[in-house]
Structure formats: C-alpha cells, structure tokens
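Design job #97: recover the sequence.
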C-alpha cells in the first residue's frame, strides 16, 4: 500500500490524538506537534487533575481553582466545535479563543522531568481549562497567571495552535470515540501499567480505523522484534497483520528516566542504582523521539515503516554518573544492583507488577547488550543529530539540584 496522503499543508484540518499525553514521551510528542503547527488532542485519564496539578505548580493557583472550568463533556464533536474539543487560542491572533466548557489547553503543564500523577482518579466528563506549560523546557513558557480557562498562547510559537485535552482511558471504551472525534492520526502509547493489549490497544486500533484514522504511529521499543512475548510485539504484529497504516517507532532507553524515575536517587543519594551491570546503552532523548514522531505524522512516506531510534553514542551508567557529577559539580556514583533488589525497590515505590516486569525485562535487554548500538536515525529523520547525554544533563541540570 502506498502512502498517498496529501502534503502536510493541505491536511491541517484534522488532528492527531496523542495517547499517554501526560507521560514522558507522549508529553514531548504533544509539544513537538504543537510546535509543528498540528492540531493536537492530548489524551489522558484524568485531565482535570493534570491541569490542576500543572496550574498549581506553574502559577500557584489551587487545584480547586482550575476545576472551576468543569461542567462540560470531556470530549466534544471535533476541532473548533462547541464541546470540549475546540482548538483555539492561536498565538499571533489566529483562530479566536473558544469559550464555554472545554476550552483548549495551552500545552501540557507538567515540567518535562516530572512523572505523571500517581494513580489519578479519572473523572469521566471532566472539562479542562488550560494551564501553563513548561513541557518544552523553554524559559518563559510559563504564563504570568494561571487563570482557569485561559489559553496560554504566549507559550506557543507563532502560528501554533493550543492542544486540547480529552479524557482517554484504554480501560474505558466509553472514552474512545469522543477522544477520536475530529482526529485522523494517532500517536499510540502502551502505558507501562497496561498488560492486556488484547482488551485494550488492539480493540482501540480497530475503533480508530473505523472512525477514519489514516495513520497510527505506535511507540514500541528497541529490541521488540526479538521479544516475541512482549505486549509491544503483539501490537506490532497486529498492526502488520491487519494492514493498518502504521509507523512503528522503537526508541532506545530514554534519558528522561534520569530526571524522573531516578531523579531522587541522584539528588538525595548521589547514586544511580540499576541492574545494568557494565553494559552500554545508546540512550535517546524523548524530545528527539518526539521530533521524529512529529515528522512521520506530518509528512508522507512513513507508512508501514519501523524505525529504531538510538542516540549517536553508547555509554555505560558509570560514564553517565561521571557526566552527571561533572555537570552538577558533585560526585555521583553508579551502583550495579541485582534484579531482586531493583524489583523490591520498585515495589517499595508503588510500581505495579506489570511495571516491575517491564522494567526487569528492559534491564535484561540492557545486560544482554541488546541496546548498545548507536545509530543515526534521528539525524536522518529530522535533519538534526541526536541530543548527547551531556547536553541532556546540562539542559535538565535543575532537576537534580
Ligand atoms: N521510558 C523509556 O525509556 C522507553 C523507551 C522506549 C520505549 N518506551 C515505551 O514507552 C511506553 C511508555 O511511555 P512513557 O515512557 O512515556 O511512560 P510514562 O511516562 O509512564 O507514561 C505512561 C502514560 O500512559 C498513561 N496511561 C496509564 N494508564 C492508562 C490507561 N489505562 N489508558 C490510557 N492511558 C494510560 C499515563 O497517563 P495517565 O496516568 O495520566 O492517564 C501516562 O501518560 C512503553 O510502552 C515503552 O515501551 C519507553
């Protein structure tokens, strides 16, 4: 099947649903798409808590304040509609800001290094107001005040549209159609907590295709073709078998784990403790993965293709710790641990058995040296080299201070 989609400029009317938009990679993808001028729907289980949390962090307003915009449906009838899905607030005075329930969001509100809220309570039908964003890490991205309902157009590049947040939960089919309204492409994330793809991602793929979606970009991970029992493998196989117009991205280990999952260890104990032995990893920056996603969603030629996304250098965690130490000007050490210690520690942090199993499997791949090979796919696909580990650490220095 050929990729006969029109050129990007002629198909701006429909949008991209990003699932897992509050997560590390999904959030970066929302940013990259907004930057590219794409209409974006940010799908997440609990938009209201996310907005409230972001608004509180960004400008000191309370979660209760943000919730004053509630009352409408979480999803509306498409872009620019009167429901929650209207996209508005173009920077530079484009489309006027929408009014009423379900105004658009500026951009995701959590800082790039912060993990999503733990175990948020989803409130179906939550309408969200916009909040400030620091998701792209640009200075000055935060608004002066975080009024509920305000679109933070000042945070957006000229011509960019705000993203719209809608409730979306793989475990709640009632959210699927409304999240997909007005959408012609999907960035599909398998959450670390979701194990049963036969009851979640796979039927969702069918629903998306029935609703007129023309491309699904699936976030897989490197090494998956060799992991026949992984859920990512099941999804990849399904996409291929059903001749879905897919693009598969298989990133290596993302560097953001240093500034999110392992941040407190680095900050408080000056240590990275992982079951990685002495293996090297060709780490990748989620921002680079996101730029690739925006590229493959925004231009033709990427259907039925799979891309392994690695950085251009491979480092061991000892070297990563040294670089952290240099940039932070304090000693940081890497301590290799056993699987059992690591798993116990994750459990202590509240990780689910599914998450623990995924992490354990990831570090088995690391120890088998399956993730050590650098490549230039990010440079090839985006025209810019992959972010180096040092650069990533410099950009996120404040995370560990
Ligand atoms: N992290 C890495 O190093 C890495 C590397 C390569 C590939 N990957 C791939 O990336 C995927 C994970 O992405 P991530 O690292 O961005 O994870 P993450 O930061 O943990 O984010 C997971 C996202 O999934 C959402 N989510 C959880 N349960 C959900 C549900 N039932 N329905 C809908 N959304 C749900 C969460 O949002 P809410 O809780 O707010 O709803 C959150 O936004 C994995 O499949 C992994 O294979 C990760």
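Job complete. Output follows.
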């Amino acid at each position: 099947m050929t990729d006969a989609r029109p050129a990007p400029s002629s198909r701006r009317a429909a949008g991209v649903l990003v699932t897992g938009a509050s997560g590390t990679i999904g959030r970066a993808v929302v940013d990259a798409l907004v930057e590219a001028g794409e209409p974006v729907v940010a799908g997440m289980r609990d938009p209201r808590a996310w907005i409230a949390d972001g608004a509180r962090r960004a400008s000191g307003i309370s979660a209760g304040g943000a919730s004053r915009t509630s009352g409408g449906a979480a999803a509306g009838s498409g872009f620019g509609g009167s429901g929650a899905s209207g996209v508005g607030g173009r920077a530079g005075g484009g489309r006027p800001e929408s009014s009423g329930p379900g105004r658009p969001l500026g951009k995701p509100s959590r800082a790039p290094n912060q993990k999503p809220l733990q175990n948020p309570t989803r409130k179906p039908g939550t309408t969200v107001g916009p909040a400030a964003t620091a998701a792209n890490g640009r200075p000055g991205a935060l608004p002066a005040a975080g009024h509920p309902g305000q679109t933070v157009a000042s945070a957006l590049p000229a011509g960019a549209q705000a993203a719209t947040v809608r409730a979306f939960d793989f475990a709640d089919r009632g959210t699927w159609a409304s999240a997909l309204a007005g959408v012609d492409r999907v960035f599909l994330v398998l959450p670390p907590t979701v194990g049963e793809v036969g009851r979640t991602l796979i039927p969702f793929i069918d629903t998306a295709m029935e609703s007129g979606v023309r491309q699904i970009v699936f976030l897989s991970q490197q090494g998956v073709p060799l992991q026949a029992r992984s859920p990512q493998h099941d999804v990849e196989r399904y996409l291929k078998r059903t001749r879905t117009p897919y693009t598969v991205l298989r990133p290596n280990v993302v560097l953001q784990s240093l500034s999110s999952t392992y941040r407190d260890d680095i900050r408080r104990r000056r240590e990275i403790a992982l079951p990685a032995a002495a293996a090297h990893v060709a780490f990748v920056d989620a921002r680079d993965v996101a730029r690739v996603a925006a590229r493959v969603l925004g231009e033709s030629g990427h259907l039925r293709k799979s891309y392994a996304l690695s950085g251009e250098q491979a480092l061991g965690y000892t070297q990563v710790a040294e670089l952290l130490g240099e940039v932070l000007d304090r000693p940081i050490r890497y301590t290799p641990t056993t699987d059992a210690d690591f798993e116990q520690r994750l459990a202590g942090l509240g990780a689910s058995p599914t998450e623990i199993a995924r992490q354990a499997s990831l570090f088995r791949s690391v120890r088998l040296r399956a993730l050590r090979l650098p490549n230039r796919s990010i440079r090839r696909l985006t025209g810019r080299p992959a972010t180096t580990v040092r650069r990533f650490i410099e950009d996120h220095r404040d995370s560990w201070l």
